[in-house]
Amino acid sequence: MNSSHTSLPRIAVLATGGTIAGEAGDASKTSGYKAGVLGVDKLLGAVPSLSQVARIHAEQVASIDSKDMTPALWATLCTRVNALLAQDDIDGIVITHGTDTLEETAYLLHLTVKSEKPVVLTAAMRPATALSADGPLNLLNAVTVAASRASWKQGVLVAFNNQIHCARDVTKTSTYAVDAFRSPEGGALGWVQDGQVEFQRAVVRPHTLRSPFQISADLPVVEIVTSYAGASRAAIDAFVAAGVKGLVIAGTGNGSLHSALQQAVAEAVRQGVAVVRSSRVGAGHVMRNGAAPDDALGSITADALNPYKARVLLMLALAAGTASADLQSVFDTY
């Protein structure tokens, strides 16, 4: 990369809060802190070497703990991302985010951002005030990935603990470890270290410009129900009575449903509720097979999407007016 400042890529850093912007009264504590306290200027100030990687345009979009993420904020964020990427003077975007719902936001953007330019989410497991805080290096690496031409046309990425993940594949796998994010099925796309970015595989499924989905502030209501030993149909019945448009079942094993839930699912489908079977296992894919009689129940399967990402896709598909008969194809494709 040319070392002259004016030739560096211009990267927009959009801050939304999270642990990466968290603050605690004791540097030895990595829990009990307040998330989203520090502004984007403080985050950037902790990484002076960013000026050697990119020219930074910074915006504070939100200051929340990501457990409180909402579809309305998704809409605000996505709209701003699309507007910035449409500018000739913006070469990519980095979003700082809390870890709790990062994978949901990343997949939502993966399907609704309309640009070939890189969008990279990053976060931290330790607050900014902690000993060995991981946020500054994650932020530096995320900007490095966003500034790399190799990241174009890869959809939305997550840069965390030196690894680069696809938004569709990545999930949080630890409550405390600094390598909390993994892609259980396909593995990471590549890595970033000391300014070097390497992709070892490409994103295959359609996304961004090849995705038909659009963001909306009033996405259809989709809820998640879990199957487990002794499960009751009460949650499904309550959600249907409340008028939900879709349900995702976090099933056991290969998305299997307790017998008490199967009849409730069939009745929900007959009332016009879209039902998707995912799995609570954490890895693998859910197939249309004998684990649950999908044809009889009218349910569809989530492929390798975990329940939370399956919910995102179902919300977007229903918002797009996708017919019930076409929903399985959507999950097989995206």
TrEMBL record:
The keyword Membrane does not apply. Residues 222-331 form the Asparaginase/glutaminase C-terminal domain. Residues 10-203 form the L-asparaginase N-terminal domain. The keyword Cell cycle does not apply. It is an enzyme of class 3 (hydrolase). The active site is at T19, T99. Its EC number is 3.5.1.1. It comes from the Bacteria. Belongs to the asparaginase 1 family. This is L-asparaginase. It comes from Caballeronia udeis.
